[in-house]
Amino acid sequence: MKKKLILILALLLMVNVFVESAVLIETQIVGVSGKHKLYLSIPDDYTAAKKYPLVIGLHYCGGTAVKYRLGLKPLTDSLKMIVACPDNSGNVFDNTRTDLITASIDSVRAMYNIDEASVYLNGMSCNGEVTLQQGMKKLYPFKGIFPWAPYISRVDNKAINLNSDMPVTISIGTLDQYYYGVVLDLYDSLKTHGANVNLVLVPGISHTQDFPQFGNEMIHSISYINDNNKISISPMNDHSDSYQMFDTDAEKVLEFNISDTDHKELTISSVSSNTKVIDTPEITYTPEDHLVKLKFKPIPGKTGKVVMVLEAREKNGIAIKQATFRVQVGKIPATLATLNSVSKIELYPNPASDRIYFKCNDDLVFVQIADLNGRIVLKASGNLASGIDVSSLKKGLYFLNAIGKTKFNAVKFSVQ
């Protein structure tokens, strides 16, 4: 019995040593506003003969550096990174406190052997915004920044340098009721400005760090900054970075060629930013052909904007890559849906660019075109045998309804 007890205790001790692979240290830094505590997480096998990456973590307003360090400790456990969390009494690291960021770096650098080329900045909520503001304007030559659930007051260059080349991964829970929409807008703006940005969506999580996978999601986020560009994602069929659909549309299938130059096994996943409009896409993956099919379909009766993230990552490696695209789902205008009849009309070309023409068994006397939001954007009447000029319409999806002696079925078409 004693031998069994000793064996169990030994196993528990081994598990504890494995899990608690970080040494937690409390020290002090001095900033413009006075003395502040600095909480560190150090690899248990630290040696001065080796250089270590450093992460500065800024706790959320109302939070504590002790709690935030605990959340980021998996970076030390799994990636052997030194984590440093300065305490600011639960407040924002605004322009009068940014000195604590550089003071934290200087303090850790004085105590430990830091890899100067691998210093990262992270922060949550209000200090996620500080991470974006100070990181994108290069307060320090960070290797990259990875804010979690950042509070965003404005999406413009006055608030955040959208033209910065700083590598950034923005991560947020899909149930974040405060900042989810504006964070997606920020991501779109950064992509438009050509920023080096990736997006990590965490399904089912609200505005909190209190969930078991928090540390793993921070590892997930930082992995994009450290990607070695071994994976490529190439669209194979009709592909765009944005789509327009009606809520009654049939399933859409997109195909991608995904390959790894090191020929490593890949894990493929996808996330919908709004599962109330489009549920999580279905994925089929045939590794021998490098072929990925992404299938998704709008939920009838639901409308809105959806961001789709397709991700490929090595099962045993550091390479990771993503492709994102947007889907705007609208509803067929009631004024058009009620005009359907057995009479059919065809229009061509579809997609159109300049003019559209009609094939039907009647002389048309009236045509109206509505956009994805149901707004009537063009009307025409009289002799329509020569077609209609649609060159003034923006690129997108439209619905056309025509009336002659009878009412014709509504027809969907696109302008390119």
**Beta strands, count:** 23
Q: What is the N-to-C succession of helices and strands?
A: HEEEHEHEHEEHEHEEEEEEEEHEEEEEEE
CATH C-level class of the largest domain is Alpha Beta
Number of alpha- plus pi-helical segments: 7
Report on the structure:
- The protein folds into 3 domains: 21-225, Alpha/Beta hydrolase fold, catalytic domain (Rossmann fold), CATH 3.40.50; 231-330, Immunoglobulins (Immunoglobulin-like, Sandwich), CATH 2.60.40.10; 334-415, Sandwich (Immunoglobulin-like), CATH 2.60.40.
- 21% of the residues lie in helices and 36% in strands.
- A 6-stranded mixed β-sheet has the order 1-2-4-3-5-6.
- With 416 residues, it is of the alpha+beta class.
- The chain starts with a helix and ends with a strand.
- Helix 2 packs across helix 6 (214-225).
What layout of secondary structure does this protein have?
Elements: H1 2-19, E1 22-31, E2 34-43, E3 52-58, H2 65-79, E4 82-86, H3 99-111, E5 114-123, H4 126-136, E6 144-145, E7 168-173, H5 180-192, E8 197-202, H6 214-225, E9 231-235, E10 242-246, E11 252-260, E12 266-272, E13 282-286, E14 291-296, E15 304-314, E16 320-330, H7 334-337, E17 346-348, E18 355-359, E19 366-370, E20 376-381, E21 388-389, E22 396-403, E23 411-415
Parallel strand pairs: 3-4, 3-5, 5-6, 7-8, 10-16
Antiparallel strand pairs: 1-2, 2-4, 9-11, 11-14, 12-15, 13-14, 15-16, 17-18, 18-21, 19-20, 19-22, 22-23
Helix pairs in contact: 2-6
